[in-house]
Design goal:
The structure holds two protein chains of two kinds. By secondary structure, chain A is mainly alpha-helical. Chain A folds into two domains: 74 residues, no CATH class; 160 residues, no CATH class. The longest helix of chain A has 32 residues. The N and C termini of chain B lie far apart (55 Å). Classes of the chains: A mainly alpha, B mainly alpha. Chains A and B meet through α2, α3, α4, α5 and α6 of A and α1, α2, α3, α4 and α6 of B. Chain B: It is found in: Cell membrane. Chain B: This is CidA/LrgA family protein. Chain B: Its main location: membrane.
């Protein structure tokens, strides 16, 4: 942060020193980067390859590396955006409540798929990371990756992973699901929007849900529902699954 | 004012959730408990107040934005990711595909078996 090579003029440097020490800059560049990324996303006809999370993260990392800024400096401002993940999680109760009548007819299939999905997500990521020689820390950071970020970070901390690494893995998982989901369903000839939505929400949380809403409102609603329910199921099942697998492996 | 009421209510539920989780030593994150409590409240009231609906819609319509600061956190983990890139990449990719495919197939099968339209005979419970 002390010597940004791009700013030779001492006057500019003073402004930079002031700005980089205040949270204003981190917050503003986050919103600007997302605004640009979202515009690009709309420009490409909402292509999943132009996912606004990927583009804005890449843009921001580029800017931070070029200006020699640290993540801590950036996060001093960006935490105000990050903080909203908490109330957003609480807000999931609203779509959950609005979809509840549909859920009532499908509660048994949804419950079974959800429990299986959450156990497969947690179990396969621990198992695969273990098989491929990943450290315990990496296995635990990966375990809750399919749950929405604030939940996954909380679980990661409880089971001995690195919460901030988990946050990154959660985002990467969501992007993977959003990119591959619709293609996978095409290959498997799954046409039911209910099944597609549940799978998207369980495997790829909010980023997958954002993608699901582009396919159809019904797929989006069920994906949102699955995301909210699986956040709860992951919090209950994954710590237990970790104990079980630790006893087995 | 309405938006303010809505966001305040969401924060109150989150706060109550966080405090309850800590007091009782529950294994779930505070906001998740907050979500469950808000859901139960809505069930009991039988409708969503306009203020809560507005605040929730505003937050959830830009859910992607809220992930960006955490995503940028990747730069703090470049070393770790570079060291263990193979298990991380493969486990993440394969596990996500597996979860997505398995969940969709299980949901499709169980819907066919268990959620048949009513009036198909009374042998369901026997």
């Amino acid at each position: 942060m002390n010597n940004p090579g791009l700013l030779p003029d001492p006057g500019l440097k003073d402004i930079w020193v002031y700005l980089s020490a205040s949270p204003l800059l981190g917050l503003t560049i986050t919103l600007v980067a997302y605004g640009l990324a979202y515009r690009l996303y709309l420009r490409t006809g909402s292509s999943p390859w132009a996912n606004p999370v990927v583009t804005s993260v890449a843009l921001l990392i580029g800017v931070l590396v070029l200006t020699g800024s640290t993540y801590d400096d950036y996060f001093a401002g960006a935490q105000f955006v990050h903080f909203l993940l908490g109330p957003a999680t609480v807000a999931l109760a609203v779509p959950l409540y609005q979809q509840f009548s549909r859920l009532r007819q499908l509660w048994l299939p949804v419950t079974i798929s959800l429990i299986c999905g959450v156990v497969i997500a947690g179990g396969s990521s621990i198992g695969l990371a273990w098989l491929l020689g990943g450290s315990t820390e990496i296995q635990m950071s990966l375990a809750p990756k399919s749950a929405t970020a604030p939940v996954a970070m909380g679980i990661s901390e409880k089971i001995g992973g690195l919460p901030s690494l988990t946050a990154v893995l959660v985002v990467l998982t969501g992007i993977t699901g959003a990119l591959l989901g619709t293609k996978l369903f095409e290959w498997l000839r799954i046409k039911d929007d209910t099944a597609k939505g549940i799978a998207m929400g369980v495997a790829a949380h909010g980023i997958g849900t954002a993608r699901a809403f582009q396919v159809s409102p019904q797929m989006g609603a069920f994906s949102g529902l699955a995301m909210a329910l699986s956040a709860f199921a992951t919090a209950l099942l994954v710590p237990w699954l970790v104990d079980l697998m630790a006893a087995m492996l | 004012m309405q938006f303010l009421n809505g966001i305040t209510l969401l924060l109150v539920y989150q706060l109550v959730g966080e405090v309850t989780v800590r007091l009782l030593g529950l294994p779930i994150p505070g906001p998740v408990l907050g979500m469950v409590m808000l859901f139960l409240t809505l069930m009991i009231r039988g409708r969503t107040p306009q203020s809560v609906d507005n605040a929730a819609t505003a937050l959830l319509s830009h859910l992607s934005l809220l992930f960006v600061p955490a995503g940028v956190g990747m730069m703090a983990h470049f070393g770790r990711i570079a060291e263990e890139w193979l298990p991380i990449t493969l486990a993440l990719l394969l596990s996500t595909i597996l979860t997505m495919v398995a969940t969709a197939l299980i949901m499709q099968l169980t819907t066919r078996w268990l959620a048949k339209p009513a009036g198909q005979g009374g042998c369901k419970d026997e």
